[in-house]
Amino acid sequence: MRDVLYLATRYLLHNRGTTLVLVGSVALILFVPAAMYVVVGGAADVLEERAARTPLVFGARGSAVDLTLATLYFTEPAVGPTSYAEVEALREGGLAEVIPVHLRFSAEGARVVGTLPEYFGFRRLELAEGRRFAVLGEAVLGAAVAEALGVGVGGSVVSTPAGAFDVAGSFPLRMSVVGVLAPTATPDDEAVFVDLRTTWVLEGIAHGHDDVAESDTTTAESGDQTSLVANPSLLPYTEITPDNVDSFHFHGDPGTFPVDAAVVVPGNARSATLLRGRFEGGERPTQLVVPLTVVDQLVDTMFSVRDAILVLSAGLVAATIATAGLVFALSLRLRASELDSMRRIGVGRQRLRAILATELGAVLVAAALLATGATALASRFGGQLIRWLTG
């Protein structure tokens, strides 16, 4: 048997190019359906787990899927914002805790999530260092953001303007980091959390100004009148500090300020039913959805696509096996003189068959091992890939 293994191994190593092509082709055809099955199944578990921990989601009327994904995974909001007054109205009667979120801005490539301190308790987020935000301009970083940016407590992150030609009043804001969250392996690791009012500052709704002192003004005379004209130092601040935080003030009615969504946590099943009853009929400009129901529908679609790909993969497997068989048959013809020489020196038919079977088996085993390793990697990082794609 050792001679069979030796001859088979030497042949495969001598023809390493052909061997690598065969191993790679078979491994790929085994990997694709296996990885599809594992990744989709893992993605479904990840999606359903976070959705199951979020009783209800509130936001402007539109796509329930977009609203759910934005609230749970901090994707770019595709549904328009609602007003803070709508959030306050949802709190009437004390049926549920309502935690608003604002998702329109980013900082250093990470989503800025404007919310209330209650969000940390709802998601059971623990601090690895520092504290939660308390005033305007303070930020708490998710674990992945802090690691990627190399920023910790005492550092800062700068927001990205809403657009290159934004003239609505939003401006880059340097936010001081006061806390870093412990890793959770959820989208919370990849966000920058700030107070809801800080995102309204980013919207340009709030401004801070220096006192108009003599050093900050110039005198302008027109006829018999003299007036003070503020110089360019009276521009909105790009950083909120203890020295200027008191100068910030909001313009307009807070009830009109924008909120992208809200997490709604009813006190009990009866409260949830009463709340959902308010939104039956579709007459309101807002909606209240059950994330788990939305995600289940999304997962069903994913499974349908997966099953269709697996069916197609079965045909591809058959084609690959046929191709590999053809390559092997052609190689036997090319090796006719070699095999004839082996018979002449006394190698019997059974031993020749054993050598060829060992060669084929070695290719299949190597391909299976390669496909198994690649599938394990897909299973290990599939959840992160899905979060990246949805983000």
Which descriptors would you attach to this protein?
2 domains, 391 residues, alpha+beta, elongated, two-stranded antiparallel ribbon, 16 strands, six-stranded mixed β-barrel, 11 helices
Structural notes for this entry:
The chain has 391 residues and is α+β, with helices and mostly antiparallel strands. The protein folds into 2 domains: 2-46 and 299-390, no CATH class; 56-289, no CATH class. The protein has 11 helices and 16 strands. α3 (64-73) crosses α9 (291-334). It is elongated.
Summarize the structure.
This protein has 391 residues and is an alpha+beta fold. Helix content is 49%, strand content 20%.
Topology:
Layout: H1 2-14, H2 16-52, E1 56-60, H3 64-73, E2 82-83, H4 84-91, E3 96-107, E4 110-115, H5 118-123, E5 127-130, E6 138-141, H6 143-149, E7 156-160, E8 174-181, E9 191-195, H7 196-202, E10 206-207, E11 217-222, E12 225-230, E13 249-250, E14 258-259, E15 261-266, H8 269-278, E16 286-289, H9 291-334, H10 336-344, H11 349-390
Parallel strand pairs: 4-9, 6-8
Antiparallel strand pairs: 1-15, 1-16, 2-14, 3-4, 3-7, 3-15, 5-8, 6-9, 7-8, 10-13, 11-12
